[in-house]
Amino acid sequence: MIEFYNVDMTYPNGTTALRGVTLSVAKGEFLFVVGPSGAGKSTLVRLIYRDLVPTSGFVFVNGVNLAKLRPKTVPYLRRHIGVVFQDFKLLPRKTAYENVAFAMRAVGASAREISRRVPATFELVGLAGKEDAYPSELSGGEQQRVALARAIANHPLVLVADEPTGNLDPATSRGILQLLFEINRRGTTVLMATHAKALVDSARRRVVALDRGRIVRDAERGTYEALRA
Amino acid sequence: MGAGAAVGEALKSLRRNGLMSAASVATVAVSLFILSVFLLAALNLDNLARTIESQLEVRLYLAEGLDDAALEDLRSRLLALSGVTEVLFVSKEQALNDLKEQLGDRYSHLLEGVEEMNPLRDSFRVFTLGPAWVDSVAAAAAELDGVENVGYTHDLVQRLLRLTNALRLGGLTLVGLMVLATVLVISNTVRLTILARSEEIYIMRLVGATDWFIRWPFLLEGMFLGIAGALVAGVVAWQGYSWAVGWVYRSIPFMPVVPVYPLAWRLGLVLVAVGGVVGALGSLLSMRRFLRA
């Protein structure tokens, strides 16, 4: 579903964020990308939804070479990818419902489809009843659930989450992680970049560790830090 | 999205960004109002110039006691001169009446007592094809029998023409500069409202909205801002101009002014067009930097 081949990423200011990254994520898989700040986690995530184009190497999503994507077709790629951020990135002047409905309208969903699917999505993320609240009236955990509802409203193939629990307390974080598992169980490939050690250790899922732009570890049922024998 | 949805989206967004929208409308209104003042001034300068030019005529003051046959003879001779389009006879009684009318009620008392011993002369007003013909017609007419005096001076005509041309050029230049300034102010105002929401555009792109899906509501929003400002400016300019025209009629009755109607409607249309188009283009241009995928 997601393939990185020998990807280098150097920003225009000269900072090199990724070096020789090769990574393959199968359809339906769940994985954590871990590492200290500046290791390149966010860069890796941004390459997937083509917010960035690699300096060299290739990124494939769902079999499409992103480097060859024409700018006009980028929106259509993004419709297959849900994105969630640490800071939620909700539209502040739209209600929770409108934030989700907007994402659906953007991809051409009909009004009937929207009014049918948005409530179901709110049900799934556990926010039924909060539809009319504005983001500022919701707690951090609730805002992240709205962001998740928005990310999955179009049934994406892939969900990428960049530090989705970075602003949340441990209990709320666990709730968000459970939700990501649930989304994954329904067939969506989920990639979560995080440095929340406790979450990663409790989950025992695939862990890819980055350090200074290189993949230093890739373990099935892994932990945040390498286990020492 | 459909047109209706885009309009709804734009209106909703204007309402929710209330303070920013109000500030933008006010800015647009002020700049369009200033443009209106200059435009109205320029139109009146042109009108004044035209009036002055149309009054460029050769006035022939006639000898006393010409009979009807002599007058008719003189008239046909004048009409035969090249460049002459019309010849009007003005009796001295009529001339006095005209003068009274021109002075208006307020100053007509100046003429009291003059009426019994009218000091004015019978005259011909000779109109020409244009200012360029005035010189030669005046010279030829001066030679004719029965013409006592030619009310015309070469220098005056030339000076008048220079003045009217300067008035027009000045008016046009000022209006041109004001249009430029207005366009810059409006497009910059719209730009600021969009820059304030760059995050919103980023999110729209993130969820897979196409560029045009994102553009439409912003474009309409810019257009609505421009039109709203234009309506405010138009109403203020219309009321202000009506008042100004009324004042001029009362205080300087012989000063030519462009009547309020239909000028007010045309001005309104121009303002709405300028506001709408510049608002829409301004938002389109300022979005370019956000919509490079």
What does this structure look like?
The complex is a heterodimer of chains A (229) and B (293). Chain A has a domain at 1-74 and 189-229: 3-Layer(aba) Sandwich (Rossmann fold). Chain A is built from seven helices and ten strands. Chain A has helices spanning 41-48, 74-78, 96-106, 111-124, 140-152, 170-185, 197-203, and strands spanning 2-10, 16-25, 30-34, 56-61, 64-65, 81-84, 158-162, 189-194, 206-211, 214-219. The longest helix of chain A is centred in the C-terminal third of the chain and has 16 residues, at 170-185. Chain A starts with a strand and ends in a 10-residue tail after the last strand. Chain B is of the alpha+beta class and 293 residues long. Chain B folds into two domains: 3-52 and 160-287, no CATH class; 56-153, Alpha-Beta Plaits (2-Layer Sandwich). Chain B contains nine helices and four strands; from the N terminus they run ααβαβαβαβαααα. In chain B, α1 (3-16) crosses α2 and α2 packs across α8. The radius of gyration of chain B is 29 Å and the shape is elongated. Chain B starts with a helix and ends in a 6-residue tail after the last helix. The model of chain B has no long low-confidence stretch (mean pLDDT 85). The chains are: A alpha/beta (229), B alpha+beta (293). The A-B interface holds A 49-51, 71-72, 74-79, 83, 89-91, 93, 102-103, 105-107, 150, 154 and B 1, 5, 13, 16-17, 199-200, 202-211, 213, 292-293.
